[in-house]
Every structure is written in C-alpha cells, then in structure tokens.
Amino acid sequence: MLGRLTILFLVLATLGLFVAVAGHKTEHDANDAPNTGDIVSTFLTSWTRPVPLFFLFRLGLIGWSIFTDSFSAHFWASAFVWLFVFRYLRTVVNTIGYIRLKPIMPAENPKYTNNDVTVIVPTVEPTAGTFVECLQKIIANIPAQIFIVTVGEDNVNAAKSLGERLNADNKVKIEVLSVPKPSKREQVVAAVGHVDTELIVSCDDTVFWPSTLIKYIIAPFEKASVGLIGTCKRVRRNDLPFGMASFLNLLGVFRLERTNFDLAATYSIDGGMSCVSGRTCAIRTSIMRDPEFQHAFLNEYIFWGRFGPLNAGDDKFVTRWLYKKGWEVAHQKCPEAQIQTILGVVGGFDRFQNQCLRWARTSARDNPKMMFRDNVWISYPWLAYSVLFTSFFNYSLFFDPLIITIFWFALADVSFASAVATITARPMLALVLWMLAAKFVRLAPHYSRHPSDLRYAPGIILFGYWHSLIKLAAFFTQHKIEWGTRAGVDAAAKK
Q1: What's the CATH number where 168 sits?
Q2: How far apart are the C-alpha atoms of 49 and 493, rounded to whole Å?
Q3: CA-based angle 313:318:323, to the nearest 5?
Q4: Does residue 30 sit in helix, strand or coil?
Q5: Domain ends where: 431, 449, 467?
Q6: What is the distance between the alpha carbons of residues 23 and 16, in angstroms, rounded to a whole number?
Q7: What is the mean pLDDT of residues 362-384?
C-alpha cells in the first residue's frame, strides 16, 4: 500500500512542477530592461529545470521498483523517497515559481493614484535618524496625507517639528496623533478613523521607500477582489569589516531574502501568501474601518482567551482576516516597489535572536490556524503544503541527520542501490551536496550582488541549525506574547 502511495506522491510531484511552469502569471511590461535579478533568474531557469525533472523521473523509477516488490523488503528505500520528495519538492517548484513571477504594472489610466492614498506610520522613536529618512522617502511619494502616530507629548512635539521641517513646501498634508501607550495595533487603528481616502499604506518607522513605491504597490487594486498588497523587501547590507557585526547584518539580510522568495513563489503558483508583511503594505480603507475588524484586531487572544491581547503578529492577523472574508491578496516583485530596512545592526546577537523568537512564535501560533481554522488549504493548496504544513517539520537540525541516516540504511537494499547508481556513483556525497546546495537557493539573488558574502557560508549553515532550536523554543513558549525589541511596548502592555 505504501509503495502505491509513493508512486502517487511522485506523480503529484511532477504535476506540481507543471503547475509552477504553466500556472498563475501576472502582467508585466515586456520592454523592461533586464537587471541583475533577471540575469540570475535566466541562469537559474536554464540550469534548474532539466535537473529536478530528471531527478524526479529517476526517483519515480526507484518508486516503481518499490511498488513491484513487497513493502517490508524496501522499508528504508520507501522511507527515503517519501522524505526526500516531501522536503525538496517545494524547493524545486518554488524556484521555478519565483523565477516566473512578474510584477503587475500600473495601468495607463489607473483607477487609483497617489491622491487616493493615506500613509500611516506608527512610531515610538520619532527622533531616530532612521525615522527621519523614512519620512523623507514617504513625502517623496506625495500621498494625499500622512498620519504619524506616536506616544507622549514629547514625541508628538518632536514628530510635528520634523514634519514641518521636511515638508516645508507643504507638498503633503501631515498630521501627528497620539495614543496612551505604545502598541502598533492601537496606533494604526487610531489613525484609521481620520482617513478619508480609499486606500491606506501602512509603513514601519525603519523602512525606506523608492519614490515610485505608491504608484506600483497600488497597481493590483485595479482588480476589485484584491484587498491587500505586499511588496518585496531588502535589508541594507552595511559595509563592515569581516566579523560578528557584519555577520549579524547578513543574518538579517537573509531573513528577508528567504521571506521574499517564499512569498513570491507561492503567490506565483496558486496566489496564496502566508503573511503580507506589515513593514509596508497597502489595504483598502473599508476593510480597516470595519468595526468587526477593529474589534478583532485589538482583541486577539490565544489559548482560549488566557493570553493577550496580542501586539506582535499584526500582519499575520490582517492576512488571515482577508482570507477568511474572501479577499484576494497580491504581491509586487519589482525594484519600483522594493522597500529597504535595517536588521541585525542594533543590539547584537541577543536582540536579533529575540526578533527571531518573536517571528517564530507568531508562525507557531498562526500557521495551524491558517491551515485548519481558516481552511486556507482548500483555496491555496500549494501555500498550505510548501509553507504552512511543512513549518511543522522544518527543523534542519533534526531532519538533515535523519534523512542521511535513512539513506545510509536504504543503500543496503540492493535494488535501491542499483537504481541510485544510475544517477550517481557516489550517492552519499551527492545527497550531502544536494542538501547543502538547497540551503542556498533562496539566497542566490543576494550572492549575485555580494559574492564576497560567500565567506560567511559555514556560519550561515550553523545558524540555520541553531534556528531550529529557536523555533523549537518558540513552539513551547507560544504563550509569551512580548514584543521583545521595542522600547516601552512590553512594559506598557503589562499595565
């Protein structure tokens, strides 16, 4: 029976590749000049397509040999084929999906323009240098209005002074609002009641936009069923000497590179995304004005109401809400809508690890909800498999030794070893090299821009294993809902 299921799974794997190649596409301008990412994509497309298809075809033959004999005689071989395809099918299909995704270009006569957009910026540090640049970049996009929402009279005065200085020609209407305590969710909702445009773009205070962002991020709203739009992100790579500071910055870079890859890939294949990042996203004002939404947004509790209200995970909540209400989400992957931010440059390893822990806790809490309570797997099956379901098992510290051990035992099976020998004469080395290469697929765009960062590759692999322990700790501490890295947020939440 298990052998038959193995064959079925491999058939589905091949169909999955077909879906990635022939499936969901978005509009794009064929006259766009190629950039470095396009060159890398072309190289990856020409190199990756035949190899995985051939490899899966050979695995199919191996599965057939298992099918024609008794399962008990081929237990380890069958287990290896199942684990290998379960783990690496998503890498192959997501790579093709990522490469094929094109941006949705603005219409010649768009329904919405920058005059239909209000920007909301929650901040607790309006005097920080990063916020100054953030506000400058937003003003350059000329939205209809900007709301800065902060805490305390001193911060309000500082934000007003900054707005007057940067907006001396009154190019944009800027208003500063205040809430009693620092809470990103409460700060955003406080501004929504003052918005009189059809669209809202929310922006974190450490994010830097290109001058074309609003024009491109709102382009998918031409489709009436789209309610929320995310964009691609990049962490600024600091010019630091070789050492821990540079390595931590690189860890931050790779955090968003992996996220970019996964979001673009799943959106390309079936239109689903696990989370539209709150660093910058566009949403219809009508959604955020809905009293039902605001009440749920400000009163999210976990574990049967014992812990909350939550502050972190706001973007995951918004994404889930739109799926539950039948809205579509969209993703813009293009330089014109690419934001920049900073990660891994303040607070050292402890701060970055706390950020990773917060993100992992949010995923541990919300991924099962998306899968089973929100029934995302029905509308977006590829998203459900490649991100949500696999997140329950994606612990490389445990998986890598497991699959190598199972492969070792499987090679004792003469028929399996003979089949593998048709692929490679050094099967164990080939498996290890494949596993190592797979860890760098999502990072390829960054390495094409910064090849010197390959010197950190051993450290990146080791941190990946350490991150398995972070995720395990997050799973067992989901009830801890503190933000961890924002001044005053956690202390205010306890009052």
Answers
A1: 3.90.550.10
A2: 50
A3: 125
A4: coil
A5: 449
A6: 10
A7: 92
Going by C-beta distance under 8 Å and a sequence separation of 6 or more, which residues neighbour residue 279? Answer: 203, 204, 207, 233, 339, 341
- Mind listing the pLDDT tens digit for each residue in 170-209? 899 999 999 999 999 999 999 999 999 999 999 999 999 9
pTM, 2 dp: 0.85
Is residue 231 within 8 A of residue 337, CB to CB? The reply is: yes
Q: Rounded distance, CA 419 to CA 123, Å? A: 60
Q: What are phi and psi of 120, to 5 degrees?
A: -115, 125
To which H or E segment does residue 397 belong? helix 396-410
Structural domain that includes position 215: 114-368
Domain shared by 212 and 265, yes or no: yes
Residues in the chain: 495
Terminal-residue alpha carbon distance, the chain = 58
317 and 416 share a domain? no
- How far is Cα 199 from Cα 286, in angstroms, rounded to an integer? 8
422 burial level (CB within 10 Å; 0-12, 13-18, 19+): exposed
R_g of the chain, CA atoms, integer Å:
24
> pLDDT by residue (tens digit) across 94-139?
999 999 999 999 999 999 999 999 999 999 999 999 999 999 999 9
Residues 6+ apart with CB under 8 A from 451: none
338 lies in the same domain as 442: no
**For residue 151, which of 183, 185, 120, 191 has the smallest C-alpha distance?**
183
**Can you give the pLDDT at residue 369?**
92
Same structural domain, 59 and 145? no
The backbone torsions φ and ψ at residue 407, rounded to the nearest 5 degrees and listed phi first, read: -65, -40
Domain count of the chain? 2
